Amino acid sequence: MSSTSVNATLEPDITGGACRLHAVRLANAHADDAFFKIYNSDGSSVTVGTTAPDVLLYAPGSDTVTYTFTDKTTAGGGLALTGMSIACIKNVGVADGPGTEGTTNPTGSVTLHAVATSA
User: Fold this and answer.
1) Which of 64, 99, 111, 117 is deepest in the core (most CB within 10 A)?
2) Three-state secondary structure readout of the chain
3) Model-level pTM?
4) pLDDT tens-digit profile of 9-66?
């Protein structure tokens, strides 16, 4: 799956249900750092800025990074999620930076490419 408009607005249940997340590639086109939030949820109980993400990934400015998730103890591997909801925020300091409280859109486009299989 791919999205070229990942921002601070929650994208609920992008996998349509339970999945195993194997890899995430984030391409941050702007010089400002960004943080990608993954919620293990269908999104119905998530509020960006108050709900703590289950996974927080760093997307350095003007760079592309790839994260892989493995679980050799479970058939199929990957990170098991009951649903995958996402958001991406700009790092603008402790008061609105990474973690639960961040709600500011990234300065430029952050492109997401994810590899997931249904659970």
Assistant:
1) 111
2) CEECCCCCCCECCCCCCCEEEEEEEEEECCCCCEEEEEEECCCCCCCCCCCCCCEEEEECCCEEEEEECCCCCCCCCCEEECCEEEEEEECCCHHHCCCCCCCCCCCCCEEEEEEEEEC
3) 0.90
4) 999 999 999 999 999 999 999 999 999 999 999 999 999 988 989 999 999 999 999 9
CA 112 to chain centre: 8
Question: For tokens 């609920």, what's the residue?
Answer: 12
State the Cα–Cα distance between residues 19 and 116, nearest whole angstrom. 6
C-alpha atoms less than 13 angstroms from C-alpha of 20 in its C-beta half-sphere = 13
Residue 86: Cβ within 10 Å count: 28
Query: Which residues touch 72 (CB under 8 Å, ≥6 apart)?
Result: none
pLDDT in tens, 59-107: 999 999 999 998 777 777 899 999 999 999 987 555 555 667 788 899 8
